[in-house]
Amino acid sequence: MRIAIAGGGIGGLTAALALHAAGHRDVRVFEAAAELRPLGVGLNILPSAVRELHALGLAPAVEGHAVTTAELAFYTRRGDLVWSEPRGRFAGHRFPQYSLHRGLLQQDLADAVAARLGHGTVETGRPVTGYTVHDDSASGTTVTVHTGSGDVEADLLIGADGLHSAVRAAMHPDDGEPDTNGMWMWRGTSRAAPFLTGASMAVLGDDRAKFVVYPIRPADESGLALINWVTGRPADGPSAAQGLADRKKEVLAQFGDWKVPWTDVPGLVAAASQIHEYPMLDRAPLPTWNDGPVTLIGDAAHPMYPVGSNGATQAIIDGRAVAWHLHDAPDVPTALRRYESERLPATRGVQEANRRMGPERVIDLAWQRAPEGFDRIEDVFTAEELQRISDDYASTAGFTVEALDADSPYGTGEPR
Ligand SMILES: Cc1cc2nc3c(=O)[nH]c(=O)nc-3n(C[C@H](O)[C@H](O)[C@H](O)COP(=O)(O)OP(=O)(O)OC[C@H]3O[C@@H](n4cnc5c(N)ncnc54)[C@H](O)[C@@H]3O)c2cc1C
Fold first, then answer.
1. What pTM does this model have?
2. Domain ranges within the chain, ordered by starting residue
3. For residue 415, what pLDDT is reported?
4. In angstroms, what is the span from residue 10 Cα to ligand 1's centroid?
5. Pocket test residue of 152, 185, 299 for ligand 1, highest count of atoms within 8 A of CB
């Protein structure tokens, strides 16, 4: 079977590896970027996706440069604790949660693709611009993939080309631009002292402004860790600041007076080696991800606000799921229908929960109920309410202990 994948990001590369593990050898990945460079800053992979990396034999490589996340904790902007919970192995899961640099994860996946499928598998500088489906009673349903440098014939096209997916646009021409909630993010990394457990992910603030902070490399011999931080604030558009020094000034104008007892928020911003700015974007859930032999995975299928650590997580699971259903079904359209009926409702729930700010809701509620702060969190929430907010998100995103103690539903990943 001739398989084309649009996009060599987290989802597309995982899909290539999962397809290879399922016995497919004619897999080509068309990537728009001229080269795969370690772009982005930090992200998290939840145990539900680490299980899939494990099945593909990738967990040791990824773990080698990740922080094994110990806890997720929510604080007010003054540093008062609202809620904390252990994560991954620390919560009794069989698999850990990892915090790591997106570029290193993408590089691990790309290295594995080169080693297992061959060096020419990812064709960089070759954007997919659209496709044409052919329904031929003799040869079955096939697809012509239009790329920046010529057409390619395939039996299956997987659109893994991210938030601004060309495959999605061709499938749903009326979809338009991504939606925004009016929040803008600065993402930065800084070398700084570890805080709390040394492997904590902390979310500070309220619905006026947030500061999310977690290490993505453990402390080195000098005692400093690589710390990833992300801010969210409402804004009409990007800030005028361009260079690093001006961006630091902008971020400090908003967060320079935040004082929490266990880390130095202004100091982190001042120590940043890079600061990127992004709008917070998603898209509404689609009615279908399929068009004959064409399907969507990852952000192309279900872009979501980056709260709750589900962007890369769900893309990895999609990659494994689509390969599994192909192996199991009599033909491509049936496989894609099964893939969609499993994954579309599951990810729609996460997209919708993230529009309500996922588990971060607890600090928004704390600020709305106690704007002057509180002495005891029990005066603001009952323990049951806090637990319920966390449990509801975990069950929507499929990472309850019960769900994860089982083996992967998509097999071991051993080559067939
Ligand atoms: C450069 C970059 C930096 C990012 N940084 C972060 C970050 O720091 N933290 C975070 O949480 N998330 C980040 N993300 C988003 C995150 O990677 C995704 O939300 C998540 O991993 C889902 O993966 P995906 O494979 O669906 O999409 P992505 O990982 O976004 O991959 C999509 C891939 O498709 C390629 N592409 C786009 N259009 C086309 C086209 N027409 N034809 C062929 N290829 C195309 C892109 O170059 C990219 O390689 C970043 C994404 C990108 C592209």
1. 0.95
2. 3-39+103-178+283-357
3. 42
4. 7
5. 299
